[in-house]
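Q: I'm building a small set of examples for a reading group on sequence design. Run inverse folding on the following structure and report the sequence directly after it, with nothing in between.
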């Protein structure tokens, strides 16, 4: 049954790998045919049309999430696709434990107990494979480790299920014969089993988000120690013929750690890089942007990266014993790595406080190589389907989510291939946030103008929405005394999308609007003019991310995408705030 269990798991990984290969073939076909076919992103062969039809069905099913409300709180359930994957895994686990057994037959209780124990132990390698930063499953399927983290957590939680069955059927038998006390007190094998189960329970409970987020650094250290303790307890509990299921995950874990440590050593040792600034290869400058955000800049970085990737940063002097992931807000042609970091607590707050103290005191004639603090880097990580293969693109970002969408948009414009139209939407609370990416957005407008002069048919709309009621009120006629709060709320609800005064920082072709964007209308209008498959890229709070997915499902269903109507597919890449 262990082999049968892994046959199903391996088949699922194989299907995902084939899908990844097919996506790569589609990308290659679109890019190579772009010069001769104006609608290169439209599937034409039977194979690609069949793939587009299946993708449309899977997306409409998998993207949707049921919205719920409790009093004034609004939230979404997990997407249907993720839920289906998890439920399928739970069903596979239960069937593997009980197949060909009758749980009501007392004579088979021990058989069920042994079987479920063996099924539990063979799941451990999968838990580890899904956790590594240098992820084998991610390499095969084209899915970054950060998008497999939820599956790692839930597979680990599901591991509790066969363990409980394993323990429950044995305990049930011992209670029937009044043998439980003796087993717990005198049987070393039973004692080791209870210890292993207790450690696993602790691993699951301590990884729940409210507990994990109390101190992520402490969580990581205790999680690794607890996991190694769990492996040891299982090793001394199970028979020797099942020790392979302990050595395999331990080997995977050591391999991931060695590869990652070697790469970190290479990246950060200044002697190994031509532009190294000393013993440590990278130095970072910290600049306060406003009352709660910091720009961290690493000039002349010793790495290559792609738009949409992130890195882990550690600055021992400013924030000791902490390493956090941040999205890279620049592209390689900038010659520097930039991050826009929101100050919350812990390391991000210490970054901001340091920036406030250090930035004004920096001498104006200091070169970037001689200022700032030594910083350790790890990465880059993350993968995304190449966006230049899509006919039309919609970028939706909330606040610092623009650190993800802005580089992707700039990369498309600088390396134009198939795309005809880009709609870039950025939602900010205050108009002052526009300064974070003002020069980059202006450059995009100039680059598109250059493409037009070269005869390339690409169009772009850049719209920035300001949601603060204070900003909205200031953009209207003067508001008097005791009616100001009511008028602010009225402004928020009734003057959405009215143009605000310019900032003086942006090209006049970039619109700054009051209120919130109508995501459904933006996606629908883009889909109506798309000549081939389009993509929606969203990064921001979970509510924005999931409402965008649901909007895509609705538009796809309305237009009968790839169901004979001629409407083209809509792919969604979603990045939610937070790190698991």
């Amino acid at each position: 049954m262990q082999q049968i269990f892994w046959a199903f798991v391996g088949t699922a990984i194989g299907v995902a790998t084939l899908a990844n290969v097919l996506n790569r073939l589609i990308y290659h076909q679109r890019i190579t045919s772009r010069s001769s076919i104006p609608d290169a992103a439209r599937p034409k062969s039977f194979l690609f049309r069949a793939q587009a039809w299946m993708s449309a069905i899977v997306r409409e099913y998998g993207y949707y999430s049921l919205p719920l409300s409790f009093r004034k709180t609004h939230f979404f359930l997990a997407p249907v696709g993720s839920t289906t994957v998890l439920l399928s895994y739970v069903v596979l686990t239960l069937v593997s434990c009980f197949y060909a057994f009758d749980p009501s037959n007392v004579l088979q209780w021990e058989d069920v107990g042994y079987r479920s124990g063996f099924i539990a132990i063979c799941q451990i390698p999968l838990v580890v494979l899904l956790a590594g930063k240098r992820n084998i499953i991610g390499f095969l399927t084209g899915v970054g480790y950060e998008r497999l983290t939820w599956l790692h957590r839930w597979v680990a939680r599901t591991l509790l299920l066969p363990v409980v069955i394993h323990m429950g059927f044995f305990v049930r038998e011992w209670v029937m014969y009044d043998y439980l006390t003796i087993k717990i007190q005198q049987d070393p094998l039973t004692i080791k089993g209870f210890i292993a189960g207790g450690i696993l329970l602790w691993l699951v409970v301590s990884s729940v988000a409210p507990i994990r987020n109390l101190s992520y650094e402490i969580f990581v250290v205790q999680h690794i120690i607890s996991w190694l303790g769990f492996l040891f307890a299982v090793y001394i509990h199970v028979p020797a013929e099942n020790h392979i299921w302990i050595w395999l995950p331990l080997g995977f874990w050591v391999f991931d750690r060695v590869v990652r440590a070697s790469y970190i050593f290479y990246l950060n040792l200044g002697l190994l890089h031509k532009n190294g600034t000393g013993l440590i290869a990278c130095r970072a400058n910290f600049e306060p942007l406003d009352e709660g955000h910091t720009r961290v800049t690493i000039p002349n970085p010793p790495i290559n990266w792609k738009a949409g990737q992130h890195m882990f940063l550690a600055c021992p002097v400013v924030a000791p014993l902490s390493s956090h992931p941040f999205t890279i807000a620049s592209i390689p042609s900038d010659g520097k790595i930039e991050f826009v970091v929101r100050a919350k607590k812990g390391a991000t707050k210490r970054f901001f406080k340091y920036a406030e103290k250090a930035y004004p005191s920096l001498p104006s004639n200091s070169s970037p190589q001689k200022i700032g603090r030594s910083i350790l880097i790890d990465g880059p990580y993350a993968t995304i389907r190449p966006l230049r293969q899509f006919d039309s693109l919609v970028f939706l970002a909330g606040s610092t989510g623009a650190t993800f969408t802005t580089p992707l948009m700039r990369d498309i414009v600088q390396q134009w291939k198939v795309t005809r139209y880009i709609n870039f939407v950025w939602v900010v609370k205050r108009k002052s946030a526009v300064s974070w990416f003002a020069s980059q957005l202006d450059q995009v407008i100039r680059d598109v103008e250059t493409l037009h002069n070269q005869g390339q048919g690409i169009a772009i709309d850049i719209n920035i929405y300001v949601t603060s009621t204070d900003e909205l009120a200031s953009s209207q006629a003067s508001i008097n005394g005791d009616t100001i709060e009511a008028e602010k709320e009225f402004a928020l609800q009734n003057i959405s999308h009215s143009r605000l005064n310019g900032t003086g920082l942006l090209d006049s072709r970039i619109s700054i609007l009051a209120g919130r964007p109508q995501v459904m209308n933006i996606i629908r209008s883009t889909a109506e003019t798309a000549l081939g498959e389009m993509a929606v890229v969203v990064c921001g709070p979970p509510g924005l991310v999931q409402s965008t997915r649901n909007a895509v499902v609705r538009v796809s269903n309305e237009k009968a995408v790839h169901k004979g109507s001629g409407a083209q597919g809509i792919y969604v890449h979603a990045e939610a705030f937070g790190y698991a």
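The domain at 272-381 is CATH 2.40.30.10 (Elongation Factor Tu (Ef-tu); domain 3).
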